[in-house]
Amino acid sequence: MSALPDCQTLLLERHNGVLHITLSRPESRNAMSLQMVAELRAVLAEVRDDRGVRALVLSGAGGHFCAGGDIKDMANARAQGSDAYRDLNRAFGSLLEEAQHAPQVLITVLQGAVLGGGFGLACVSDIAIADHQAQFGLPETSLGLLPAQIAPFVVQRIGLTETRRLALTAARFDGHQARRLGLVHFVEQDPQALAERLDEVLDHVLCCAPEANAVTKKLLLASAGQPSKELLDEAAQWFSAAVIGAEGIEGTMAFVQKRKPRWAS
Fold first, then answer.
1. What are 19's strand-pairing partners?
2. Which domains does the chain show, CATH number per domain?
3. Can you give the pTM of this predicted structure?
4. Of 85, 108, 167, 263, which sits most exposed with the smallest number of CB within 10 A?
5. pLDDT per residue as tens digits for the range 2-49
């Protein structure tokens, strides 16, 4: 049995072959800090070859899944220059790749904010269960930024046409529309129904042989085609340029100062 790493931004609980991973920065609606990215990657690496872990259940504390990247962290990191932004952004793309390719069945339980990076994590899950009032969206362009690492995975999940609409309008939508788009598989009306659906899904997953599931998942992903490393590298460069550009500076500062950016006023 693998030893799980100590985490400050995640709550980990292993039970009956299932590792429950809870994003735990509730004061920021579980915004994805660089530390959280690193801790998630460490957990995925630790259990990758552990077939005693049959499924990974990813959820968020405090009634939200994940509100996206930590914009305040990005604003504070401005003095480090564009390389720091590129590296931070690319690290999240690596997390999405590693989560996509985890041998275990990855299940996301989606409540509250499912935005930006949280949206990306939902797109790399094998099974997604959402609360009907969950709020999904790609808000990056409304902040003068790009969904750089997320976009290829969203296109793969729901198709180019819908991704263009969502990414270029920063539109928000609920669990029912997420189901219609094919982003999530189940929509439930309350926390009890979410928990019952999760139990049902896990019962089915645990009926399947872990190595067979791992190899089947690898086969399915290979059949579908993957976002390329080269594209993600290039997207990280674009993201870095956006962060230090006029729109990125205005958008992130407007967020920190709790005002509308100039283009939204």
1. 14, 56
2. 1-190+209-265 (3.90.226.10)
3. 0.91
4. 263
5. 789 999 999 999 999 999 999 999 999 999 999 999 999 999 999 999
